[in-house]
Amino acid sequence: MTDLLETVSTSGAVYDCSHWGRLRLTGRDRLRFLHNQSSNNCLILQPGQGADTVFLTATARTLDLATLLVHQEWVDLLVSPQRREFLRRWFDKYIFWGDDVQVSDRTAESYCYRVFGDVAKKMSHQFNLGAFANPYDHVTVTHEGAPLTLAATSGLAIPGCTLWSDRPLADLLAPYPQLTDADWEHLRICQGRPAADAELTEEYNPLEARLGHTISFNKGCYIGQETIARLNTYQGVKQHLWGLELSAAVTSPTPLLLEGEKVGLLTSCTALDRGAFGLGYVRTKVGGAGLTLHTPQGILVRVVEVPFLRSVA
């Protein structure tokens, strides 16, 4: 879709996401606790495996999309930077007497990187890793005397992996193209990854955000489970998240109109060489991919699929 996307997908690049939140849970009840606090089935995960999961309010509104990696003695969580402190306090609120769970914030003392394309292949070759069997599978090796975890997820629908280390990896990653936060924002919009404070807010639930891969419908009780089960059973999802091709860039949030009636909301937008691309919610009853809408400014909007949501549907 863009020159940046083409470069990242092929020759590759590095995104230093060390400012994202990294929380570690220890104690014998750590997986049970996460199982009860989030939408995915955490109890089936073994050391070396991982998953995406969503933290919800009691009414199933979305707090954050997080990636968890299960290790032998702990579970690591990668969360949105603006949700780190909130989730740490949230966990503390739900740890009751008798629960053997400890939560530590390791953001300041660890480092995290997304690597894409050929850079990811070079990392795998350098550490003699074969192909991972499943997404989110991970291994921990030693690099310069410190543990380094390599996980089979780039955070986008682009081949790559995530590196999590106890030391900075400038010596390892500096030779490769580096992405800025603005680059990441551009890529995640074009790819269709929903973000906290944009597509993931207390206005929306994960079924609307099309994050079905983060939800277990048969695991039992968790925060927000009753609402999710009801929406799923009675097909009560009234809007869905889509990609949006625009004739020009607009400021988000911007209403989406069909014949003058508001039928959705653009939540993110990034400029392209020609026009712009965005993400937004569109009412289910008016349609999905292929639908043509417009903004109050008269900008044409075409509803399209996006790789991230298509790959996890």
Task: Note down, in words, how this protein is organized.
The chain contains eight helices and 17 strands. It starts with a helix and ends with a helix. A six-stranded mixed β-sheet has the order 8-9-10-7-1-11. A six-stranded antiparallel β-sheet has the order 13-14-15-12-17-16. Helix content is 21%, strand content 32%. With 313 residues, the protein is α+β, with helices and mostly antiparallel strands.
Set out the fold topology:
Blueprint: H1 3-9, E1 14-16, E2 21-26, H2 30-37, E3 50-56, E4 62-70, E5 75-79, H3 84-94, E6 102-105, E7 111-116, H4 117-126, E8 138-143, E9 146-151, E10 160-165, H5 170-173, E11 178-179, H6 181-191, H7 225-233, E12 239-246, E13 254-258, E14 261-271, E15 276-283, E16 292-294, E17 300-304, H8 307-312
Parallel strand pairs: 1-11
Antiparallel strand pairs: 1-7, 2-5, 2-6, 3-4, 4-5, 7-10, 8-9, 9-10, 12-15, 12-17, 13-14, 14-15, 16-17
Tell me the β content.
25-35%
The average pLDDT score comes to 95
By DSSP, the count of extended strands is: 17
Please report the number of helical segments. 8
Sheet/helix structural class: alpha+beta
Please compute the radius of gyration using only Cα atoms: 20 Å
